[in-house]
Amino acid sequence: MSTTQSERLRELLEPLVTSQGLDLEEIAVDSVGRKRVLRVVVDSDTGADLDAIADVSRALSAKLDETNAMGDAAYDLEVGTPGAERALTEHRHFVRATDRLVKFQLAEGGEVVARILTVDEDGLDVEVPGVKGRKATTRRLGFPEIAKARVQVEFNRKDKKDMKEEEEA
What we know:
This protein has a five-stranded antiparallel β-sheet with strand order 7-6-5-4-8. The protein has a three-stranded mixed β-sheet with strand order 1-2-3, covered by helices on one side. A hairpin with a 3-residue loop joins β5 and β6. It is an alpha+beta fold. The chain is built from four helices and eight strands.
């Protein structure tokens, strides 16, 4: 998708997404056979449930039909949320990933896998898990130190609610 088309679609669709209480994270147009697919990724601080996705999808579809922004050729509209292993690129992404395990590629080289504890304007405090029975350690990462960051999927982690229920039992 050309930058101009991407920018034009963002300008057209972002106000609609924002009016639904969501953030427009990504827009992509891909060719699939003879059809084109317009993929729109949305999110919010509290996440986006299926009802919110359906509502914004209907609003975007109506706007696209009204303006003919995708032209006369057939296309499919897909609206969804970022994947489980999303890349963190904006300040709000780091805030939303608080308590999540993240793999950081450092600007100076090397990597750190750590849990985000807090986020402020300058960077974040993370907890690096201990290895081989050692205690976890905390570390400060400034945003300039981070080249890339990606949320890691955890299958066995108990959330705070589960741990609280176990303590009460």
